[in-house]
């Protein structure tokens, strides 16, 4: 049995990039193109989890968005793209984060039912029940404000929690705000702006610098022209 080593599966010299399906994959494609790399299969239609590119030395792993930092940290991927929201929850251990790619942009916010008086709840120092996937970010935010919270960890569909009385508030990422509006929720406080970052395995950065650097440079140049 082979166990992944610190420098990863790609010890033969190839590069492995970890991406999640959906907006991060879509927004990373033009950056890859700017480095001369074309992904040869579409993850929405292919069942493959390791996708080839036009460069035999570069392959793309398709993983859950929140798993990207873990693959890169352990060297199973040399580099990856992950949202700041995901990186804050992961902690960033073992990861070098050289570039803000300005893609998959959104914001992390607090939202409540339309009728809930958030300002007075916070002022009165009552314990606030907050449901979220982003427990570290939420804990830090409310600690900074001096607000006592009971955090309820969820893995998705946070918007449902206030509707059914599971929580008073949620902490979630918001982009158009359409999902909040459709559920009669109101964004009551912005915590931070979010965008996706390039993350690189620290060992790969040293051992594969020659292969990685031109790609990092191309990503850096291309991302400066993004939103
Ligand atoms: O979906 P899955 O559970 O696999 O994981 P994920 O939600 O973490 O992955 P994915 O691919 O949906 O998101 C990847 C990254 O994109 C996140 O880590 C964020 O950094 C970023 N991003 C940008 C977003 C959004 N915009 C966004 N709108 N992530 C999630 N959303 C959600 C939002 O929470 C809401 O439920 O999309 C829904 C629609 O948003 P509105 O405001 O446009 O209605
Ligand atoms: Mg999602």
UniProtKB/TrEMBL annotation:
It comes from the Bacteria. Catalyzes the condensation of ATP and 5-phosphoribose 1-diphosphate to form N'-(5'-phosphoribosyl)-ATP (PR-ATP). Has a crucial role in the pathway because the rate of histidine biosynthesis seems to be controlled primarily by regulation of HisG enzymatic activity. Belongs to the ATP phosphoribosyltransferase family. Short subfamily. Lacks the C-terminal regulatory region which is replaced by HisZ. Pathway: Amino-acid biosynthesis; L-histidine biosynthesis; L-histidine from 5-phospho-alpha-D-ribose 1-diphosphate: step 1/9. The gene is hisG. It comes from Massilia varians. Residues 64-219 form the ATP phosphoribosyltransferase catalytic domain. Its EC number is 2.4.2.17. One of its GO terms (molecular function) is glycosyltransferase activity. Heteromultimer composed of HisG and HisZ subunits. This is ATP phosphoribosyltransferase. PANTHER family: ATP PHOSPHORIBOSYLTRANSFERASE, ATP PHOSPHORIBOSYLTRANSFERASE ATP-PRTASE. Pfam families: HisG. It is found in: Cytoplasm. It catalyses: 1-(5-phospho-beta-D-ribosyl)-ATP + diphosphate = 5-phospho-alpha-D-ribose 1-diphosphate + ATP. Keywords: Amino-acid biosynthesis, ATP-binding, Cytoplasm, Glycosyltransferase, Histidine biosynthesis, Nucleotide-binding, Transferase.
């Amino acid at each position: 049995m082979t166990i992944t080593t610190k420098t990863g599966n790609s010890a033969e010299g190839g590069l492995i990039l970890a991406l999640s399906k959906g907006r991060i994959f879509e927004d990373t494609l033009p950056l890859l193109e700017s480095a001369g790399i074309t992904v040869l299969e579409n993850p929405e239609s292919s069942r493959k989890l390791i996708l080839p590119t036009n460069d035999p030395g570069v392959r793309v792993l398709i993983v859950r968005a929140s798993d990207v930092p873990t693959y890169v940290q352990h060297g199973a991927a040399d580099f990856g793209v992950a949202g700041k929201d995901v990186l804050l929850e992961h902690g960033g251990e073992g990861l070098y984060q050289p570039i803000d790619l300005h893609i998959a942009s959104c914001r992390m916010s607090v939202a409540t039912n339309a009728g809930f008086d958030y300002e007075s709840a916070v002022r009165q120092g009552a314990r606030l029940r907050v449901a979220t996937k982003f427990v570290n970010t939420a804990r830090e935010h409310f600690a900074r404000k001096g607000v006592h919270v009971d955090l309820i960890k969820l893995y998705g569909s946070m918007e449902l929690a206030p509707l059914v009385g599971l929580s008073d508030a949620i902490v979630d990422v918001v982009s158009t705000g359409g999902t909040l509006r459709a559920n009669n929720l109101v964004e009551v406080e912005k915590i931070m702006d979010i965008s996706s970052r390039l993350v690189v395995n620290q060992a790969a950065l040293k051992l594969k610098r020659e292969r990685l650097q031109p790609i990092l440079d191309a990503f850096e140049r291309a991302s400066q022209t993004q939103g």
